[in-house]
Specification:
Blueprint (H helix, E strand, L loop, with lengths): L1 H15 L7 E5 L8 E6 L4 E6 L6 E6 L2 E6 L2 E8 L4 E4 L2 E5 L2 H18 L1 E11 L2 E15 L5 E10 L7 E11 L5 E6 L5 H6 L3 H5 L2 E2 L2
Antiparallel strand pairs: 1-2, 1-8, 2-3, 3-4, 4-5, 5-6, 6-7, 7-8, 9-10, 9-14, 10-11, 11-12, 12-13
Length: 215
């Protein structure tokens, strides 16, 4: 009898495998390059709410023949699931649902990005106007250390502008930055006067890696 019950449970499990509902968080299929996601929640029978990460507006949709339909401005937005691979189709883009396996993969990838920039970095730039390089040199030094929080690093920057000239200035700033799967650095906690130039021009892991690692 026990064997029969176990067999029935196994069959039900296998039947349910591969089926995906709309509810959950969906990220771009190319999540290493595209930072866009959709959160879908059920809101009663055949009714759902969904929101794109790049929009403040939440939309209401009705499920009809396995399609979520929402009236947006003057057109109807449709969300469907490709049954062959359980990918969500929306606005001509493909999204995959975040489950434990994918979340672990994303976390591991961000840990890799973090490990690539931990340490000390230095670099310099020369000011150019109208294609002409001047002798105004700016030196950048970064000290990047891990934090106790996941996907976050502490970055201390020292920027010396117009090095060697009477107008030489030094700016020291420090802050906690988050790292996302695309390698973007976002200021979360300002621990001083964080230089805006850094935020505007050196905001990705790849930007940091263009400079020389000293330690």
């Amino acid at each position: 009898m026990k064997k029969i019950i176990l067999l029935i449970i196994l069959m039900l499990t296998l039947i349910g495998c591969g089926k995906e509902g709309f509810e959950g968080t969906w990220v771009s299929k190319d999540w290493k390059k595209i930072d866009k996601s959709i959160v879908i929640t059920e809101n009663g029978k055949n009714n759902y709410l969904f929101k794109f990460s790049d929009s403040k507006e939440e939309f209401s949709a009705t499920k009809e023949n396995e399609i979520l339909k929402a009236s947006v401005a003057f057109f109807v937005l449709e969300l469907t699931i490709d049954k062959s691979n359980n990918e969500l189709l929306a606005e001509g883009k493909r999204y995959i649902k975040v489950n434990k396996k994918l979340q672990k993969e994303m976390d591991t990838y961000v840990e890799k990005l973090e490990s690539e920039i931990i340490g000390n970095w230095t670099g310099e730039e020369k000011t150019s106007y109208w294609g002409r390089t001047l002798k105004n040199i700016s030196v950048y030094n970064w000290n990047i250390t891990p934090t106790a929080e996941k996907n976050m690093v502490n970055i201390k920057t020292t920027i010396v502008k117009n090095k060697g000239k009477k107008s030489e200035t030094t700016t020291v700033s420090e802050g906690i930055f988050t790292i996302d799967p695309r390698g973007s650095l976002t200021l979360k906690e300002n621990k001083g006067k964080t230089d805006k130039f850094f935020l505007n021009n050196y905001t990705t892991v790849e930007d940091i890696k263009k400079f020389k690692k000293t330690k």
